[in-house]
Every structure is written in structure tokens, then in C-alpha cells.
Design a protein that fits this description.
It is built from nine helices and no strands. By secondary structure, it is mainly alpha-helical. Helix 1 runs antiparallel to helix 4. It is globular and about 45 Å long.
Length: 185
């Protein structure tokens, strides 16, 4: 499953790697998780994990097909926000894994040419943990915004809404998130 996730990330990551000079820019502060395009304005720091590639990867890897993970494991998509218990969310580890796959895909282009690397916990465990820490920080500092973000991803991945056409994201990453201005509804 990990290799398939990485391949899908490379396909959806095509917009990010077309300008290889932007790879370092996207990797800094996890900029690749935001709906930002290299060289085109400011990063919307209040929209973490809203790069449309993220919901597309989740949909392709976990929601597509008759034997999809999401169909067999509906109990894993629960709400973390008691006031909206009926609104399903993407599980934190799933989103962290997808973010790590994008990180790995970008990292393979860091030198300016494609240099494949193993997608393993030995190679990318730190990137995964950085995503977990970022997500935990968002959830701790703004639980409602965290829920809205994770529920929105669930709805996009599940095909309940279509992705809006948007150009294409350490503790440093959490510092970049504009928690006060994240959507809460």
C-alpha cells in the first residue's frame, strides 16, 4: 500500500514538481499542504491540508473502488468534535501518511532531477511525525477548525463535494498556520 500511495502522490504532485526550483520552497514549513502555487502570491496559511492534491490522493488511495479501505472501515471516520458528532472526518494518521507521501515525492526532485528513494518509516518517519505534530497542534489550539478541516477533506475524498479548481505546502510549520482565521463552518 505504501508504494501505491507514493506513486499516486507523484501523479497528483505533478503541478508541484514542474518547477523543480520550487521544491525547496514547497518543503519549507510544509508549504505543499496549502493551496499555493510557487511564485504566485502569498501562501494562505489559514488553509492547511487544502491543497487539492491531498483530497484527490485520499480519494484515489482510500475511497475508490468496490474494496476501498473507507468502505470496509467506516468506523475509522469518526468526528473529534462532540457538537458535530455526525460529521465524519479523515483520521489523523491517514492525513499524515498522505502528507508524508507528498513530502517524499517532492524530496525525490530536490536535486533538480528525479532520484527515487524508498518510501519507508526509516526514510520518512520524521516527516510523518512532523505532520502528526502539526495536526495535533491544530486540534489542540482550535478544535472546531480542526474538525471543519478534517470533515471537509472527508467530504471531498468521499465525493460528496467536488474539489474547487485551485492552483497548487516541525514546529515551524505549526507556527505558519493562521489558526485564528481558519474556517470554522
Amino acid at each position: 500500500m505504501r508504494w501505491a500511495l507514493k506513486i499516486v502522490a507523484q501523479i497528483y504532485d505533478g503541478r508541484l514538481t514542474t518547477i523543480w526550483g520550487g521544491v525547496a520552497w514547497f518543503l519549507k514549513h510544509l508549504t505543499y499542504i496549502y493551496p499555493a502555487e510557487f511564485g504566485h502570491g502569498n501562501v494562505p496559511w489559514n488553509k492547511p491540508y487544502q491543497n487539492p492534491s491531498i483530497s484527490a490522493i485520499i480519494r484515489t488511495c482510500f475511497f475508490a473502488g468496490p474494496h476501498a479501505f473507507a468502505l470496509k472501515n467506516t468506523d475509522r471516520f469518526t468526528s473529534t468534535y462532540p457538537a458535530r458528532a455526525d460529521e465524519n472526518e479523515i483520521p489523523m494518521p491517514m492525513l499524515a501518511l498522505v502528507g508524508t507521501a507528498l513530502h517524499a515525492s517532492l524530496n525525490e526532485w530536490r536535486s533538480g532531477s528525479h532520484k527515487p528513494s524508498a518510501f519507508s518509516s526509516d526514510s520518512y518517519g520524521d516527516a510523518y511525525n512532523e505532520h502528526i505534530l502539526l495536526l495535533q497542534g491544530i486540534q489542540l489550539k482550535n478544535p472546531r477548525a480542526y474538525h471543519v478541516m478534517m470533515h471537509r477533506l472527508y467530504r471531498h475524498a468521499n465525493g460528496l463535494v467536488s474539489d474547487r479548481p485551485v492552483a497548487v505546502a516541525s514546529t515551524g510549520a505549526l507556527a505558519q498556520v493562521n489558526l485564528d482565521n481558519m474556517d470554522i463552518d
